[in-house]
Amino acid sequence: MPPLRQPDGRTTNPVIPGFHPDPSVCRVGDDYYLACSSFEYFPGVPLFHSRDLVHWTQIGNVLDRPEQLRLPASMPSSGGIYAPTLRHHDGRFWLIVTNCSEGGGNLIVTATDPAGPWSDPIWAPGVPGIDPDLVWDEDGTCWCTVAGVSQVRLDPSTGQTYGTPHRLWSGGPGAKAPEAPHLYRIGDYWYLLIAEGGTERGHGVSIARGRTPAGPFEPCPANPILTHRGTDHPVQNTGHADLVQGPDGSWWMVLLGVRPGGGTPGWHVLGRETFLAPVTWVDDWPVVGEVALDLPELPWPLSPSPAEEHRDDFEHAELRPSWISVRDRSAEHCTAKERPGWLTLRARGGSLDEADVVFTGRRQQHLSCRARTLVDAAEGSGGLAVRLDERHHYAVEVSGTRVRVVARVGSLRTVVAEQSVPAGPVVLAVTTTEPPSPHGPCTGPDVVSLGVEQPDGTFTELAALDGRYLSTEVAGGFTGRVIGMYAAAGTVHFDWFDYEPLDG
């Protein structure tokens, strides 16, 4: 799993690249665990493990069964699972999260092993709003704090709340969207860390402290303690943070940020990513260091994980945890068991424009990358797509002996290019690369090239499309690009999928 130590010895941010927003982290002994939002994708809440806060390996997904996560087709993209909080208490892992779909709400799941299985949900109907946080005080009372910012006493084993939610400190006067609260007991104080300013360019992190978890809270005079608003820093939208101690007892912050590219206003295409920043303490207040693309040398040994294999030959019945599908993944429509060594997708919706499309992909994690797959569409039609949502995606699709490139941008859908191919399986390919020079104020963030690969490995480009239209600044919402395979009609088989980073 990137990031990897670079050939010159550098270790880089983001520590979990690609669409991995709203990080929540906890430390258990020498191990660190981190969870992120997943929105309309199933399985939900990717979970990572690390020994050094830098190298993270996905060990599973918290909500990986239909009994835990139901996302109806009527739910719009960027709905679904918002902002988990992950904590370890009394020998168990606890995760609280919001399902922002019809019939949803705040739910709690637990596990003794973070790799799973996690319990069925415990619903907490008395917890209002989104971004719920859990903390236990000295006498074992559990407090749940949510965006807004308000708080209520909670029994996390039953979901029962006690009393009515009461307002806490909500950031700077007039600040937009006070959210992502996390409470900590550090030294003599309880600290309330929040995000404010909205998760766009105005995003920031602020903090207050008090003598009890219920306040009253005194704001830090240096608030916001982290923001990149109004700067030319390459990492923007910094916020939604969580604090953790490193192996040597020093303090660190995980947070989300984006890497805009291109001209004005700048477009980020990978979604909100997880970054790491150092924290020091001055007069009992945290001071956040730079969110650097090159991390400082850490005062403890690094523990690099084995690099994730670029290629998946679908030799195992269970898919890797990095594979995600839109809203659900039924064995009837997606299986690696029907045809050994192949992934079989059986169409349900008519195209990527439909909410119930059968799509299985992985998050794009590099600004430049190449994805390829061998497709057998003798019994249907389907292909390889770069997806942001139902209204923003590019795809190269095969049906019979015809391959075409389809682009959907907002209300416009068009076949950009079309070509004949020999009968039989075909290799489809997508690359994302930096736009050609010279760059100007209207230059997009990248170029998405779609085409077919010949038997000798030669890539035949059918279309090269501006990447800005698959960006959050154009499409809106909270997700990032996902590259993967889909079925538009009938049954489509995929022999392998290969994802190769091209930017280090």
UniProtKB/TrEMBL annotation:
Residues 311-500 form the Beta-xylosidase C-terminal Concanavalin A-like domain. The keyword Nuclease does not apply. Residues 1-20 are annotated as: Disordered. The active site is at D22 (proton acceptor), E179 (proton donor). The keyword Phosphoprotein does not apply. GO terms for molecular function: hydrolase activity, hydrolyzing O-glycosyl compounds. Keywords: Glycosidase, Hydrolase. GO terms for biological process: carbohydrate metabolic process. The record marks D131 as: Important for catalytic activity, responsible for pKa modulation of the active site Glu and correct orientation of both the proton donor and substrate. InterPro entries: ConA-like_dom_sf, GH43_C2, Glyco_hydro_43, Glyco_hydro_beta-prop_sf, Glycosyl_Hydrlase_43. It comes from the Bacteria. Belongs to the glycosyl hydrolase 43 family. This is Glycoside hydrolase 43 family protein. It comes from Streptomyces swartbergensis. The lineage of its organism: Bacteria, Bacillati, Actinomycetota, Actinomycetes, Kitasatosporales.
